[in-house]
Each structure stands twice: as structure tokens, then as C-alpha cells.
What does this fold into?
Amino acid sequence: MAVDDLWYLKQRGPDGERLKSKRYGQGKRWRCRYVDANGQTRTRFFDRKVDAEDFDVKARAGLVEEVRTDQTRLTFRAYAERWRSAREAGMAPETRRRVAGNLRLHLYPVFGDRPIRAIRPTDVLEWLTALVRAGTPKNSIRLYFDVLRAVLNGARADKVIADSPTEKIDLAQFLRGLSRVPKWIPTAEQVVALLEVVPERYRAAIWLGAGEALRISEALAVEASPRCIDLGREEFHVVQQLRYSRDHGGFYLAEPKAGSSGTVDLDPDVAAVLTEHIERFPPAEVELLDLTSGRPVLRSVPLLFTDRQGRPISDKRWSEMWATWRAAAGWPDDAGFHALRHFNATTLITAGVEPQAVQRHLRHSSLKITLDTYVGYWPRSDQSRGLVGSALRAAKQAQPEPADGSRSAAICRVDVLDDHA
It folds into this structure.
């Protein structure tokens, strides 16, 4: 929407004065362009600028008959098309194509036929959750949400809706919270099925993921020394992860994910598997840059897992092998090594392990992360029902009745005081 002066050109002459147009002095001087209820661009002319500007304001607010629609039945699709057509001229070609595509492919299938006034924050959150569950990349979710928010903000500015359902949604916080929720957790039988198809050379790594909740970068960094494996104390020390960077000359050891270093109990079955693995596949000594102590040190590391040439295993190589094993075991295509960590956590939870103990075992930096991630897996119990009332009733029954009936007298006095209160 805009108001134009038809009698004068925008450019000025050499003396700084505005140049007259060919229409100077002919017809009405002021033109207002607007979009009607059907999304079509229309034009109205006025003699006075103030009248043109007044009409422009009313058209933007939806108060002009031509742009007024039945707001109670106006669908998201109908308004969004008006919103898009009114703004396309100011969009770059790529932005224009992206917005149209996002509306057509990702917003209209969900919100298109709904009355725009009926869209609630819960509807938006359900849509976002479905996108996350479907494995939609976070950057794509942000783009779709930005278009939805822009359309709904436009509807609010046009007084089509009182407020936008996206206004109170913190997308960044929402994505952080959902990113921790496991998409799929294998059963014990499914972990066993995986173990059966993984070559013996790498089978112990699966045990470290399922039995000690290690991440893949931590498992590939395990070395056959008390630094990581302390059989005598039955402890496992998570102190490093294997990384790769050209800036560091290739493979190197770094500290684990922030806040996740720590010592956990070494499961007896995992200890037995590691002992057998070391006997069958003697660790390969690999020269690695160690950055875990704060001062770079080049040292010989007896890595537990290497390829047949004694080289560290890259992320790319592991991913290729993992995809083969996962398919052979019948696991979902999006199930990663991290699913073993989730299996470990939920096994502890369903066995009744204290939340704080689960947090320490997973090496989470806070109990909140543990509870937020696995909130749906804590056993539900009604054991608290009636406990407080039973305790008070038992205490009351155990209290002896005074021989002189003073308790009854005291109760009577309280009743009298209540009557006069």
C-alpha cells in the first residue's frame, strides 16, 4: 500500500525543484494503491493528500469495505496469500521463491484451512514437535517458523487477530529442549542383535556404549591403561575423546564434552569383555597430540580400537561401518551410536536407580538435563497417595486421651472462639 503524487515526478530539476509529470493538472492528484479481500491490487484516486493517506491507513487496518473479510472464518491460507502478494515486490527473488515454497509445502498442509483466529500456541508447538520427530534439520525448522511468525505478526498488525500464537514461543529454547529427547531407544534384545552382526574387532565398543554410556568419540579414545580402565578398583575413567582436525595435524585427544568428564563404575560384564578384547586385539601404540591436560603433549597412546593397519578410526569410516551393522541388525536408519547411551540410561531408570545416580553415571552437568531428557521413562507410582493423611491419623490415634477430658474442653473453647470470630 502506498500513496503517490501523480502531478509531480520523484526526481528534481537542476534548480532543486520537483519536475512536473505529464499528468500535471489533469484528474485527481493523489493515488492510493491497496490489496482487496481477494488479494488483488486495486487503486483509488483523491483530490487531497490527507484523504488519500486516511484511506491508506484504513485499508491497512482492514476497515475499508473492499479489504474487509469475515475475520471469524478467514483461513490462514487466505490471509497468507494476501500477506505474500502485498510484500513480494520488496523481496529479493530468492526470498520470494523460498517464502512461497515454505508456505505451500510446510505451512499450508498444517494451518492452511484453519481459521487464522483458531490457531493457538499449542497448535504451533505440536507442529514444531512433529518436525523435530521427523528429523527435520534445525535450520529448516527456523526458516519455516520465521515465515509463520511473519504472517501471524502481519495478521496482528492488520487487526485480524488480537495477538500472535508465536509471540510467547522461544524457538531456540524449544529446540534445545527437544534435541535431548531420545527419538528411539533399543531394547536389550535389539542391542544383542547389533552385537551379533558387529565384527569382533569392534564389539567391545558396543559394550562401552551400552554398558558405560560412552559417546562414540569417547569410546574410540579409550586406551588400555589405568588412565581409562582401572580393573582393580572396578572403575572407568572418562577423560578424553578422539577428534580430528587438520589444524592439529590430524587425530588428537581432547577433553570430553563440557562437564562430562568423570569416573563411573565399571560393569563386571563390560570389564570381562574389555579384558578379552585386549587379549585378542592387542592395543596399537599411536602417536597422538594430547590436549587434555591444558598443555599440548605428544605421547604414545595404546588405543583400544584401531583399524587393521593400527590407525585411529575416523568419524567417516565409523559411520560407514555403523550404517552396515545397523541395517543388518534391523535398527532404524536414523539410529546412531548414541542410542546405546539412551539404552543404558533407561535400563538404570526402569530398575529404580536414583535420579542423582543416573546423572552421575551419564556424566550430565546437571540433574535437570537428566530429568528433562528421560522424564517419560521414570516409573510412575501412586505410593505417595494417602501417606500424609495416614501419618497424621496414626499420630492422632496414638495420642492418649486426657483423663479429665481437657482435650474436649479445649476443642469446645476453640469452637466458641470461632463462633465469635
The radius of gyration is 35 Å. The chain has three domains: 2-60, 76-179, 192-377. The domain at 76-179 is CATH 1.10.150.130 (DNA polymerase; domain 1).
